[in-house]
Amino acid sequence: MGFQPKAIFLDMDGTILNHQNRVSMRTKEIIDDLRNQGMFVFIATGRSVDEIEGIVPKGFQVDGVITSNGMAGYVGEDVVFEHSLSVELVETIIEKARENNVYYELFPYGTSRVTLKQDKQYMEDEIRDPKPDSVGDNEWLSRKQAIKEEIVWKDSIEESAFSKFYFFARKKESINSWKHELEKLKQEIDFTTSTSSEHNVEVMVANVNKATGIKQMLEHFHLSQEETLAIGDSNNDLQMFQFVQYAVAMKNAADPIKEVVDDITEFTCDEDGVYHYLKSKYSSTNKQDFIKETK
């Protein structure tokens, strides 16, 4: 029967989320099936908790959610853990981003993401049409929606607790240059960076990632690391893959990601790859058929 997990951790973008920024009803149904069997299913995403509700089907439920690449963890409405970027780091990075005309979204806890009004013009210019070919559809749609509906434009930063910083550039050279600036800044202030595409980079608290978030969630539920499986597709999933017992990459993942995992899905995120993988391995229907065949 292969590896039998007790806890399953699922990435969102490029994994359970297709390139139209939607989680399918079939994915919801297989998660419901696994949970009914007694397995624990968690989300482990780079997205903030506020970004999740609008992209999952009605009635979508998991046992817990790890957000912002390990910065926060929630079980329903309850906070399991939250880490926060310092106000000093936030102010320093915004100043540097402005010097380099870097698109940014700051995610305070408990309220809408923020960008300063004085940076709006170059921010809007960064997501002007047409979409660059190398930018993923879902990332582009998310930026368009953020500019139009989700960013609160402020004169100054008023909040004091932040889950993450997200940065985007339409040109790979620009984001790579910004990553270099962030590496230099790390010599002065300690923090962690993570990428989920060739056009973005995110900033979190030092030594925080999806793996540290999974560890904290497992401790909360008294679950063992040896019983964990994770499915993902990008660089910000690498620590997660290293931590869990059994790692699965999406068919749409880049080759370097596929080289470090135990298995690869047969289908992409746009073909309901997670649904097909979990159904073939762990669905109750398949188990019942297996039992019938062996009687």
Describe the structure.
Keywords: Coiled coil, Hydrolase. This is HAD family hydrolase. This protein has 295 residues and is of the alpha/beta class. The chain folds into two domains: 162 residues, HAD superfamily/HAD-like (Rossmann fold), CATH 3.40.50; 119 residues, Hypothetical Protein, Haloacid Dehalogenase-like Hydrolase, Chain: A, domain 2 (2-Layer Sandwich). It contains ten helices and 14 strands. The strands form three sheets. Strands 5-4-3-2-1-12-13-14 form an eight-stranded mixed sheet. It has a four-stranded antiparallel sheet with strand order 6-9-11-10. A hairpin with a 5-residue loop joins β10 and β11. α1 runs parallel beside α9 and α9 runs parallel beside α10. The chain is globular and about 55 Å long. The C terminus is likely disordered.
